[in-house]
TrEMBL record:
GO cellular component, one term: basolateral plasma membrane
Annotated source species: Pyxicephalus adspersus
Protein name, entry field: Major facilitator superfamily (MFS) profile domain-containing protein
Record-linked NCBIfam families: 2A0113 (TIGR00892)
Record lineage: Eukaryota, Metazoa, Chordata, Craniata, Vertebrata
Membrane spanning residue stretches: 17-37, 58-79, 91-124, 145-164, 176-199, 253-274, 286-309, 321-341, 347-365, 377-399, 411-433
Main location: membrane
Domain Major facilitator superfamily (MFS) profile: 21-442
């Protein structure tokens, strides 16, 4: 099994201490980021009736929110690399809050798309990415467990928000509920304040670079065309430091990216339509909303337990396979969902779905860091999220269109299950191929190094022999010094 990618961060992660406070902050910010798009589905039926929209049109609210949350990943990564995680998360919390508060004055479904989907969604991208990155900076040996605990924030917040949203709707309607939710999102600003910087800062790097710039100005002549080309290359290298595009040449990263793009087409649609499916089966509103709470409660325990299991010596070297099997398990749950037509069946489905969903989510970023290493992780997260925003944007509306066309939710669940199983199988096979190639490349590199050493030794021997020969050879080419002959025959006498 190939080893995990290196962690060349320039310092040793503390694996504890203030890191556990950072995990609490990430728990809050990631909880709101991931859970919010699922929790607002409780309002969808009423909003749909209020604006006279179809199921596909109403699903665009969650899709846009998720897509903007992921599409803002590169911008979030760039801001984190420049300013650090703390100010970015605080700014994201304010933006989410503003989006939800302004959404209370919406008079059309298009305005909800803009305020909830785009503005709040982009705010969540500023709270999500820095949380993931900061946890990775504070932990190394205990990283899978720390990520699992931080990711558990999503089910905890979801299990609270789902019934709370139904209660708020009954008391204040969807507009008043959005106003209260906007105020609650300011907790992300508090979470961001806990992200104390760790490791080399950007300001230090700048101070190191300033003397070099002064020396160059004093020593270099006037710029020519060649120097202009060097400047362009310098811009590209500076951009790559902020967002490393060379990752698209990384085999493991590409396998992860393709598999996740396939998976995210079907990843969130079952959650978006779980409560509506419950109502379709004749379940009352509170019981249908409680299905999300059941899913979230199981997910709450599944994430940290999965993180602890993944941190064991048996699973961690094979964490990519564990991730692939979790996705296959998730897809299998969706394929069996149409068998659940009663509330008991829906509860059983929600339990298994929560378990599978928690397993996948707890490994989502850990497997990426395992492939690319902690140093390139910030760029990798940004690049992955910008690509994944497309399937996230299209997934729920496609599911809604299937429901509108067929009048039955079971075909949507079957479609999602088939895609998830295919994505899991692709990742399993792709990672098996990647690990096999890494072993071959490591063996070839070892052989190449061995050959280089042998060649160097051979060259050194030849150089020694030629040096001795030139020293022994007389200038006229006919006489041999007696001292050399004495050394050659090993005696102290002349021949």
């Amino acid at each position: 099994m190939a080893p995990a990618a290196g962690t060349d961060l320039g310092y040793t992660p503390p694996d504890g201490g203030w890191g556990w406070v950072v995990v609490v902050g990430a728990f809050i910010s990631m909880g709101f980021s991931y859970a919010f798009s699922k929790a607002v589905t409780v309002f969808f039926k009423e909003i749909q009736e209020y604006f006279g929209a179809s199921k596909s049109e109403i699903a665009w609210i969650s899709s846009l929110l998720l897509a903007c949350m992921y599409a803002g990943g590169p911008i979030s990564s760039i801001l984190v690399n420049k300013f650090g995680s703390r100010p970015v998360v605080i700014a994201g919390g304010f933006l989410c809050s503003i989006g939800m508060i302004v959404a209370t004055f919406s008079t059309s479904i298009l305005q909800l798309y803009i305020f909830v989907g785009v503005i709040a969604g982009f705010g969540f991208s500023l709270t999500l990415q820095p949380s993931v990155i900061t946890v990775g900076k504070y932990f190394l040996k205990k990283r899978p467990m720390a990520n699992g605990l931080a990711m558990a924030g999503s089910p905890v917040v979801l299990s609270t928000l789902a019934p709370l949203n139904q209660f708020l709707f009954d008391k204040y309607g969807w507009r008043g509920s959005f106003l209260i939710l906007g105020a609650m999102l300011l907790n992300c600003c508090v979470a961001g304040a806990l992200f104390r910087p760790l490791g080399p800062t950007a300001s230090k790097k700048k101070k190191e670079k300033d003397p070099e710039k002064l020396n160059k100005k004093l020593t270099e002549p006037e710029k020519s065309k060649d120097s202009e080309n060097e400047e362009k290359e310098g811009c590209l290298t500076r951009f790559n430091k902020v967002l490393d595009l060379s990752l698209f040449k990384h085999r493991g990263f590409l396998i992860y990216l393709i598999g996740n793009v396939l998976m995210f087409i079907a990843f969130y649609a079952p959650i978006v339509f779980l409560a509506p499916y419950g109502r379709h089966c004749g379940v009352d509103e509170y019981s249908a909303a409680f299905l999300l709470s059941i899913l979230a409660i199981v997910d709450m325990f599944a994430r940290p337990i999965s993180g602890i299991v993944a941190n064991t010596k048996w699973i961690r070297p094979r964490i990519q396979y564990f991730f692939s099997l979790s996705i296959i398990f998730n897809g299998t749950c969706h394929l069996l969902c149409p068998l659940a037509t009663t509330y008991t069946g829906l509860v059983v489905y929600s339990v298994f779905f929560g378990l599978a969903f928690g397993m996948v989510c707890s490994m989502l970023f850990e497997t990426l860091m395992d492939l690319v290493g902690a140093k390139r992780f910030s760029s990798a997260v940004g690049l992955v999220t910008i690509v994944e925003c497309v399937p996230l944007l299209l997934g729920p509306p496609i599911g809604g269109a299937i429901v509108d066309a067929t009048g039955d939710y079971k075909y949507m669940f079957l479609e999602c299950g088939a895609i998830m199983v295919f994505a899991g199988v692709f990742l399993f096979v792709g990672n098996f191929y990647n690990y096999r190639m890494l072993r071959k490349e490591a063996k070839a590199e070892q052989k190449g190094q061995h050959k280089e050493l042998e060649m160097k030794e051979g060259v050194l021997k030849k150089d020694d022999y030629s040096q001795v020969a030139t020293e022994e050879k007389p200038k006229n080419g006919s006489e041999i010094p007696t001292t050399k002959l004495e050394e050659a025959n090993g005696s102290g006498h002349t021949c």
